[in-house]
Amino acid sequence: KPTLCQARHLSDHGSAWKRIQEDRFGAKVGSSRSHASASDAAAATSLLSFIEERENIVVISGAGISTESDIPDYRGPKGAYTTGFKPVMHQKFVSCEKTRRRYWGRSQLGWPKFSLCRPNAGHFGLARLEAIGRVKAIVTQNVDRLHQAAGSREVLELHGTTHTVGCLSCDYQACRESFQRTLDALNPGPGNVGDVGNIDEVARHTTPEGTPGLQRPDGDVEAEIGAGYVVPACPRCGGILKPDVTFFGDNVPRWRVDAANDLVASSDGVLVVGSSLMTFSAFRLAKLAEKEGKKIAVLNMGHTRIDGMASVVVKCEAPIGQAMSQIIKCGNF
């Protein structure tokens, strides 16, 4: 059976191309299945070719890769922005005690479930591509650390992570798991979620299906937090404690920007996975790739900010876990 690269040069693009699509991605081209199936197979085939031809890919990942791990995204059909989500603004968090109570109270509720989320086939697929030398590094916008849990070693967390907590006035840091125990001790209650004076169980928002508490992409849960909720101060200097996450309205640290730029500039191609690239910090990496003459492949359900960019040579709209599993299998990676 010819490889994908060989197939491109076959004169008979009809039957040969059909056989490769059917053998490698299961699309019955020209059969009763929709034309979309053949198009999906062709896109997946092109994505596999993109990966096969490179040995120094930089991946830019976003919230879409973690939805199959039961972490909602922001802009998908059921994303946070479709349910009235309003992100925490950096200046508001720093200046307003009520905002800090609201954030940490919701985070305390959501952390037990969020911390138990596990990597899916998309994460494991990228880890495998890194292990065999196709992927050089992952620049992720996600704060969930599922790439690392899947085995990826070269991961740059562009927007930080919820797994560490730091002081804004000194260099104190704590792991989120130990900080959860502090929150539970200061705000005890049934199931360690606070009593009605702190976290009001009755006031939790619900999903259309009636599930209590809308889970958010950063791990917190929609809930009304009472004025009695206690937010701990830094045990070293009494300063404000904040997750190691770049909130909206704040700037990505310069060292992360420089590191991401260096990775893209030294790559032989960029693969965008599960991101619409609507945040400027990620979009400018794609712009840099275009400036540097790098080709870009996209694996994402729905529109992205770079769909019309000339450097985008592959756009595959498919469930990420399924697509990555097929790529690993069909590429014999």
Biggest sheet statistics: 6 strands, parallel
**Secondary-structure-derived class:** alpha/beta
Q: What gross morphology would you assign?
A: elongated
- Can you count the helices? 11
Distance between the termini: 17 Å
Mean pLDDT: 82
What order do the helices and strands follow? HHHEHHHEHEEEHEEEHEHEEH
Beta strand count: 11
Strand order of the largest sheet: 3-2-1-9-10-11
Quote the beta fraction: 5-15%
Low-confidence stretches: 1-21, 27-36, 190-214
What fraction, in percent, of the residue positions are helical?
25-40%
What is the alpha-carbon Rg in Å?
22 Å
Descriptive key words:
elongated; disordered N terminus
